[in-house]
Design goal:
alpha+beta, BirA Bifunctional Protein, domain 2, 2 domains, eight-stranded mixed sheet, five-stranded mixed sheet, binds histidyl-adenosine monophosphate
């Protein structure tokens, strides 16, 4: 029997996982520097949570959820996104009422989509959700945080920020009605997907890639004509702040997002370096969701980074990026030196916690062990044979240069290894 991973679910072998780790760590450092706090959430939630929040008529709830019956008959779902669970947890743990909170979470999400490059059935998000702040300064903070992380990871030049405002729930509903009134008599001219969406989720038609549909939309009423003054003021305030912060953006009045909970600001960070799946990070404000899930009203906003896509972008921008698994490789010449070598390595690991030190196991000829050392990517080898043990010294051999090898006492060896910096 030859087992394969389930379609749309990927392994990350160590070489790839190192890049993942680099990207994730970089992003999490920025979250911490903005004082966002980690919240750890379950992968399974009750199915109703998602139909309530993401929306009964969205693609996610209609056709993408991994839902199953628990043994007691309850319908549960592998989370397709993190916002709903974060709000649920905030309410359940009493963290939202009358409080200001800044959370982040990371982990896998599950959507039964057609897999392709950048789109998987199990994918990773790092999400941030902030509660209790109604002003546009929070929206700007979230965008500044993303911009900062993309800058630090070296991919900022490849990402563009697209922004829109959906206004209040009431203005959105009024616009929805107007759009349906305009499109219904022209239904036959819409592409197939959009025809289906007309009844259930008409705003998503604005997203359609179909040219005929886009032509039809050119004459359609615009969302901006339905915004109330407060919504306009919020959006203008945000745009002014972004200009003051020198964060570039493009207003895209067709940007509506595929989840129902948004109000006011919505945004996407997009790249053209990845083909069709170019949205690397997305989010917005969702002032009504806390109340909708049974809490007392609390304004909120957040985003989720698609880590798979950010890693793909990092690969495009830095194809030769490498992070070695091993800094120093310890060669042991005979079985009698094994315990001595293990004890030495352990002492070094305690003294130099950042050093990646690999000890050769299984014996073998010096030449073969040194070949393994080379293959490991280490910059140096520590050679331990009978003489070294008797002498209580270690031979240090640099692998990348023709420097001569030296026999060193423990303290000198430790200082040489401390100097490895990569
Ligand atoms: P979303 O737009 O559904 O929003 O997903 C956010 C990001 O997750 C996308 O922009 C994309 O990078 C990544 N993503 C989504 N689906 C897939 C997939 N099948 N394969 C790979 N990557 C994917 C949300 O999930 C909201 N919860 C964001 C949010 C947080 N809004 C407010 N707070």
């Amino acid at each position: 029997m030859n087992f394969q991973s389930v379609r749309g679910m990927r392994d990350q072998v160590p070489e790839a996982a190192r890049r993942w780790s680099h990207v994730e760590t970089g992003f999490k450092q920025v979250l911490a520097s903005f004082s966002y706090e980690e919240i750890r959430l379950p992968l399974l939630e009750s199915t109703a949570l998602f139909s309530r929040s993401v929306g009964e008529n969205t693609d996610i709830v209609q056709k993408e959820m991994y839902s199953l019956r628990d043994r007691d008959g309850e319908s549960i779902t592998l989370r397709p996104e993190g916002t709903a669970g974060c709000v649920r947890a905030g309410l359940q743990q009493g963290l939202l009422f009358n409080q200001v909170q800044r959370f982040w979470y990371a982990g896998p999400m599950f959507r039964y989509e057609r897999p392709q490059k950048g789109r998987y059935r199990q994918f990773e998000q790092i999400g941030a959700e902030a509660f209790g702040m109604a002003g546009a300064d929070l929206d700007a903070e979230l965008l500044q945080l993303c911009a900062d992380a993309f800058q630090r990871l070296g991919v900022a030049d490849h990402l563009t920020l697209e922004l829109n405002t959906l206004g209040t729930a009431a203005s959105r509903q009024a616009y929805r009605d107007a759009l349906v009134a305009y499109l219904e008599p022209r239904q036959a001219q819409l592409d197939e997907d959009s025809q289906r969406r007309l009844a259930r989720n008409p705003l998503r038609i604005l997203d359609s890639k179909d040219e005929g549909t886009q032509d039809l939309l050119a004459e359609a009423p615009g969302l901006e004509d339905f915004l109330d003054d407060e919504s306009k003021a919020h959006f203008d305030d945000l745009l002014t702040l972004l200009e003051q912060l020198d964060i570039g953006y493009r207003v895209n009045t067709r940007l509506v997002r595929g989840l129902d909970y948004y109000t006011h600001t919505v945004f996407e960070w997009v790249t053209d370096a990845l083909g069709a799946q170019g949205t690397v990070c997305a989010g917005g404000r969702y002032d009504g969701l806390v109340e909708q899930l049974g809490g007392r009203p609390s304004p909120a906003a957040g985003f989720a980074l698609g880590v798979d896509r950010l890693v793909l972008l990092h690969e495009v921008v830095f194809p030769d990026w490498q992070s070695p698994a091993v800094d120093a490789y310890c060669v042991v010449l005979g079985p009698a030196q094994r315990a001595w070598a293990m004890a030495l390595c352990q002492r070094l690991r305690l003294d130099l916690p950042a050093l990646k030190l690999r000890l050769h196991n299984g014996g073998g000829k010096l030449k073969n062990q040194l070949r393994r050392a080379d293959q490991s990517g280490a910059v140096c080898a520590l050679l331990i044979g009978e003489d070294e043990v008797n002498d209580n010294r270690v031979t240090l051999k640099w692998l990348l240069s023709a420097q001569s090898q030296e026999r060193l006492d423990y303290e000198t060896l430790r200082e040489r290894l401390r100097g490895i910096n990569r």
